[in-house]
Fold:
Amino acid sequence: ILNVEQSPQSLHVQEGDSTNFTCSFPSSNFYALHWYRWETAKSPEALFVMTLNGDEKKKGRISATLNTKEGYSYLYIKGSQPEDSATYLCAFITGTASKLTFGTGTRLQVTL
Amino acid sequence: GAGVSQSPSNKVTEKGKDVELRCDPISGHTALYWYRQSLGQGLEFLIYFQGNSAPDKSGLPSDRFSAERTGGSVSTLTIQRTQQEDSAVYLCASSFSDYTEAFFGQGTRLTVV
Structure:
C-alpha cells in the first residue's frame, strides 16, 4: 500500500511569518511528486510538479524541494499572507502505478 | 471549454437510486482521474484512466461503482443503488501526462437522502 504522509496536519501562523510543511513518500520506484493548493469552495490547483532528486522549484513566495532518495519534499512559504490560507496537498506517482495518490494535506491558516 | 467540466454541480438523490456523474476533461489530456472527498476527509482515489482504458480501478469502494471513458475524452462515473455513505464531493481531474500537473473540475456534490 502506497502511503503519502503530510505534516503538520494543520498550522496557524501570523501574517509575515515564514513556514514550511513536509510530504513523506516511499522512496522506491519514484516517478513524480506534485504539490497542490486547495482553497475552500474551490478545486485544487497545481503549484509544482517535481521529478528529479534535488529539484527546487519556486513560484513567488512559495518554493519546494525534493529528496527522492530519502522520500521527502518540503514546501516553504515566505512572508505568509492571509490569501495563502488553504490546504496544501502533495501527491505521488510511482513508476509502476500512474495514479496520483494524495496525502491528507496540511491546512494553513494565516491571520493578521 | 478551457477547463475540466463536471456535471451536474449538485445532485440530490434518494437512497437506492442510480446516479451518473459526468466529466469532460481538457482536450488532449490522456490521463483522467476520479476522486471523492467525504465530509472532513482528504481526497480519496477512485479510478484512473489512460486513454479509454482503466489500468487502476483499485479505489472503487464497491461493485456499485463503475466508470467508463469513451473516445479518450468524456468519462462517466455511475453509482448504482446509492447509499447515504456515498454522499461526498466527486472530483475529476485530467492531465496531459503523468509528470505534468493535473487540472481539476469544480466537482459534483452528491447528497443521498
